[in-house]
C-alpha cells in the first residue's frame, strides 16, 4: 500500500476544518482502486480561534488526521514547508482548507500521474469573484515576472499541486527563508501537467490576504527569483552618461556661437531632482536585496512547532 499525504495550511479557519475533511473523504474513495491510503496533515499557522480544537476533534474520530501547530503565525509559505516536512506520503498534495482547491479534481490529477508525470499543477483560468484591481495587478505581476525571471511562474497558478516524493524532497532541499513556492515549484522542474479550472469562491470565512500583503508578497517573489532589478542602476547610469555627454556638447557649441553661459537654471534643477530621484530608487532596490540577504544569512528556522500530533 502506498500513501497519499494531503497538506492543509490553516490560519483561523475553524468553520472550514470539518467541511474540508468531509469533502475530501467524499472525493478520495477512488484511492482504494489504486491500493492507496490517505493521511491528512493540517498545519495550524498560529490560529487564534478554534482551529486546533477542531482538528483534534477530527483526530479523535480518524487516526489518519495529523496536526502540526505553530507557535505563532509564520505565513502560508512556512505552513506548506512544514507540511511537506512532516508527511510520509509517496504522493503529496497541497490544498487550501477553504475549498478553493476543489478535491473533486483529485481523481483526474491521479490519472495524469499514472501517465508518468512527476507533478500535476492547477491554474485557475478565471478570477471570478475577485476585486478587478487585484486581478489587474496580479496579471501585471505575472507579465513582469515572465520578463525578468528565468524561472517559469505561471499566471493563475495555485499552490494546489500533486507531487511525487522525489519532487517533494527536491523542494525540501531548498531551505531558503524567503520562500516563494510558486517560483520554487518552477525552479525544481520535473515533468508537470497543468490542469485548468474555473475559480471557486471560498467556502466560509474571509480571505487572509489584503492588497498590501499581496503587493509585499509580489516583491518577495521578484527578489527571490530575479536579479534583473539590480541591473536597473547600471542601465539608467549608462543612459544618463550618454545624455549628459550630448548636453555638454550642445552647451559648448551654443557658447561658441551665441556666447551665453548663464541661462538654464530651471533645467538644472530638474536634472538634479531627476537624477537624485533615480539614485534613491536604485539604493532602495539594493536595500531590498540586502535585506533579503540579511534574513537568509541569519539562518533562522522557517517555522517553530508548538504541538504535533
Ligand atoms: N493561510 C495560512 N497562513 C496565513 C494565511 C493563510 O496558512 O498566514 C492559509 C489559509 O488558511 C488557507 C490558505 O492559506 O487555507 C489560503 O488562504 P486564503 O484563502 O486566505 O487566500 P486566497 O485563497 O484568498 O488567496
Ligand atoms: Mg482562499
Describe the structure.
This protein has helices at 14-27, 51-61, 76-85, 106-114, 132-148, 165-172, 181-188, 211-225, 228-258, 265-298, and strands at residues 2-10, 36-44, 65-70, 91-94, 119-124, 157-164, 192-197, 305-308. With 309 residues, the chain is of the alpha/beta class. It folds into two domains: 2-225 and 301-308, Spore Coat Polysaccharide Biosynthesis Protein SpsA, Chain A; 228-298. It has an eight-stranded mixed beta sheet, with helices on both faces. Helix 1 packs parallel to helix 2 (51-61) and helix 9 (228-258) runs antiparallel to helix 10. The radius of gyration is 25 Å and the shape is elongated. The chain binds uridine-5'-diphosphate (UDP) and magnesium ion. Magnesium ion binds at residues 96, 98, 100, 202, 207.
Q: Topology of this protein?
A:
Blueprint lengths: L1 E9 L3 H14 L8 E9 L6 H11 L3 E6 L5 H10 L5 E4 L11 H9 L4 E6 L7 H17 L8 E8 H8 L8 H8 L3 E6 L13 H15 L2 H31 L6 H34 L6 E4 L1
Parallel strand pairs: 1-2, 1-4, 2-3, 5-7
Antiparallel strand pairs: 3-8, 4-6, 5-6
Helix pairs in contact: 1-2, 5-8, 9-10
Bound molecules: uridine-5'-diphosphate (UDP) and magnesium ion.
Short description:
The chain is of the alpha/beta class and 309 residues long.
Q: What brief labels describe this structure?
A:
about 300 residues, alpha/beta, Spore Coat Polysaccharide Biosynthesis Protein SpsA, Chain A, eight-stranded mixed beta sheet, about 50% helix, binds magnesium ion
Query: Beta-strand percentage?
Result: 15-25%
CATH class of the largest domain: Alpha Beta
Secondary structure category: alpha/beta
Quick one: overall form?
elongated
The total of helices stands at 10
Uncertain stretches of 5 or more adjacent residues:
none
Record the strand order, biggest sheet: 7-5-6-4-1-2-3-8
Domain module count: 2
Distance between the termini: 23 Å
CATH architecture of the largest domain: Alpha-Beta Complex
Q: Can you identify the CATH superfamily of the largest domain?
A: Spore Coat Polysaccharide Biosynthesis Protein SpsA, Chain A
